[in-house]
Design brief:
Layout lengths: L3 E2 L3 E2 L10 E2 L5 E2 L16 H8 L12 E6 L15 H8 L5 E7 L10 E7 L4 E7 L11 H5 L8 E2 L4 E5 L6 H15 L6 E4 L11 E4 L3 E3 L4 H12 L8 E4 L4 H14 L7 E8 L5 E7 L2 E12 L3 E2 L7 E2 L2 E11 L3
Parallel strand pairs: 5-6, 10-11
Antiparallel strand pairs: 1-2, 3-20, 4-20, 5-7, 6-11, 7-8, 8-9, 10-12, 12-13, 13-14, 15-16, 16-17, 17-20, 18-19
Helix pairs in contact: 4-5
Length: 338
């Protein structure tokens, strides 16, 4: 069995070769946990307790392909965007056939909005696009073509957006860790040249705060501090990803997020756009086979969920057990015959 490297191997894995060369015997994926560079002042905070028990964050990004980002200055109640935008709009997005998510965004320290901005960001992991525009009223959001956008058809509404975008969860009414740990990295990112940064409502994974999503790829980066957030954003602006803080690519189901992370760890490929194709198949034994082509190389990764770990409690949601498990990589092989 190879020794571990960030939950995979701690030394270079054997060179992958042959028509289907395996690297067998992987332990639990994400067995080692990156330390959060920020610590909450609250001893029972979910982010602190998660790190303490060794909960891995890798490959735990929520599955979303279409992001609907809507500017709203706040304040944001715990239920936001519910209660702030028309219920019919929320129901329409929830009913889309492909994974979609509506998130409220706002400029740091900017609480007056005359014409709210909207941004549609779509990715399937291989391709991506963004469109943006403004509206006179939130009711006008109903004019946007969510159904076709969700399947990847880039609309002709608004204008195409080429510049990367960063959103940081600071939704304190939803979870105090997000505001406490998110706001310092918003401040840090506003000082970085070329970083267009917005605060946002709940994006999932409060226990992994501070959380940042980089668009258009829809990459989650978590357990960030001021310095690591700047380094992560700087890398992304230059077309690279910071693997240490990578939680996952939202466009992919979580098993494919495992595959991408493992392949990048083994090969050292960090280019954000290196992913060329991906397919996912579930077997009757609940293992998932992910075929992935990256940087001109083809891989097969077999993944399953590990047994439940010991649950823990925290003060952000009192009286509720936090349940979690690790990912197990059963097999990784590279097909070197084209």
């Amino acid at each position: 069995m190879p020794a571990r490297l960030d939950g995979v191997c701690s030394e270079p894995c054997p060179v992958l070769g042959g028509s289907a060369a395996p690297v067998p015997g992987y332990p639990a994926f994400g067995a080692s946990v990156i330390e959060n560079p920020q610590a909450s002042r609250r001893p029972d905070a979910c982010s602190l307790q998660s790190t303490t028990v060794g909960e891995p964050m890798a490959a735990r990004a929520g599955h979303t392909r279409l992001w609907v980002l809507v500017e709203h200055p706040g304040p944001w109640p715990k239920t936001a965007p519910s209660g702030l935008l028309p219920d019919a709009l929320l129901d329409r997005i929830d009913s889309l056939a492909h994974p979609a998510r509506l998130v409220l965004i706002r400029r740091p320290r900017h609480r007056r909005v005359v014409e709210p901005r909207w941004i549609l960001a779509w990715s399937d992991g291989v391709g991506s696009w963004m469109r943006e525009g403004t509206i006179a009223s939130y009711a006008n959001l109903s004019d946007l073509p969510f159904e076709t956008s969700a399947v990847g058809v880039e609309p002709d509404v608004g204008t195409a957006r080429r510049a990367p975008l960063f959103v940081v969860c600071t939704h304190g009414k939803k979870d105090a860790c997000c505001a406490e740990l998110g706001r310092p990295i918003v401040t840090a990112l506003t000082q970085l040249d070329g970083a267009d940064v917005w605060e946002c409502t709940h994006i999932g994974g409060d226990r992994f705060a501070a959380n940042l999503i980089a668009f258009p790829a829809g990459m989650y980066f978590s357990r960030l501090g001021a310095e690591s957030a700047q380094a992560t954003a700087r890398d992304y602006l230059e077309g690279r990803m910071a693997l240490a803080h990578l939680r996952g690519r939202a466009a992919l189901p979580q098993q494919a997020q495992v595959a991408e992370h493992v392949i990048r760890e083994v090969t050292g490929v960090t280019d954000v756009d290196a992913l060329e194709s991906v397919s996912v198949a579930t077997a009757i034994d609940s293992t998932v086979t992910v075929d992935m082509r990256m940087a001109g190389r083809t891989f097969r990764v077999v993944v399953r969920s590990g047994p439940p770990e010991e649950p823990f409690r925290h003060g952000c949601i009192p009286g509720t057990d936090a349940t979690w498990a690790r990912w197990i990589v059963e097999r990784l092989e590279e097909n070197t015959v084209e």
